[in-house]
Each structure stands twice: as structure tokens, then as C-alpha cells.
Amino acid sequence: AKRWLGGPYLFTQLTTSTELIEQQPEKARRLVKAVQIALKWIQRHNAAQIADALRPTPEARPALVRFLEKNKHVYHPSGAFSDEQLRTTERFFHQVSGADPGAAQVRLADLIDARWAGRAP
After folding, report:
1. Which of 17, 29, 105, 107 is most buried, judged by most C-beta within 10 A?
2. Alpha-carbon span 86 to 82, nearest angstrom
3. Whole-model pTM over 0.90
4. Which residues make Cβ contacts (< 8 Å) with residue 83, sequence separation at least 6?
């Protein structure tokens, strides 16, 4: 990500409404916990083992293993993310949004509730 985007980047996230978090915080906490368990499992296994668990077609397996060898560490094992990832992602979002005045006002930190995943250094 540093080479193409200028720094570490948030590649994915769990997204829901503020209302759901307020009304069903335990559901949100359990979803984050499930993702954390999966991320920790990924960290404890090599690319071939992960590919085997996904059961790709024989034709797709070599490419999947190569992809996992290069990218399996893109996520922090706890699901946490850093301020630097937020800044890089926000900068990219603003750049690709062009002159959209609404997009220019978006601040990712204002949209994130990290109480369960936490923040990474």
C-alpha cells in the first residue's frame, strides 16, 4: 500500500449504522470478536493452510497461495487500525473524489467507533 497509496491503508472495514450500535451493542461486539478470531487464525497459519481451508478450485489454488503469501499480514491480528492508516485512506478518498465539496468534508475519524477493535500503533 505504501508504494501505491503513500502509506498503510484501510483495505476493509465493518460498516453499520450508529443506531444499530446504540440499540444492539452486544451484536456489534460479537461481530468484531468473530473477525478478530478469524484474523488471529490467519496469523497462525501459512498461506497454503489458509488456502486449503478456503477450498479453492485446483486451478485457482496456486494464485490464491501466492496472493496470501504477499498479503496475509495486511490486517492487524486484533482488527485494530492506526492513525496513519486513517490518514492515508482519507487522503486517497479526497484525491479520487475530485472537487466534490461533500467528499472534501469527510473525516474518517468522525465515522469510526473503535471501542471493540481498538487502535494499532
Report:
1. 29
2. 7
3. no
4. 119
> Cα(78)–Cα(33) distance, rounded to whole angstroms?
9
What are the tens digits of pLDDT across the range 2-50? 777 788 888 788 889 999 999 999 999 999 999 999 999 999 999 999 9
Rounded to whole angstroms, how far apart are CA atoms 9 and 1? 6
Q: Are 80 and 116 in contact (CB under 8 A)?
A: no
Q: Are 95 and 104 in contact (CB under 8 A)?
A: no
Distance CA 76, CA 73 (A): 7
Amino acid of residue 30: R
Distance CA 91, CA 51 (A): 33
Q: Are 89 and 108 in contact (CB under 8 A)?
A: yes
For residues 12, 97, 70, 30, the Cα torsion angle rounded to the nearest 10 degrees is 0
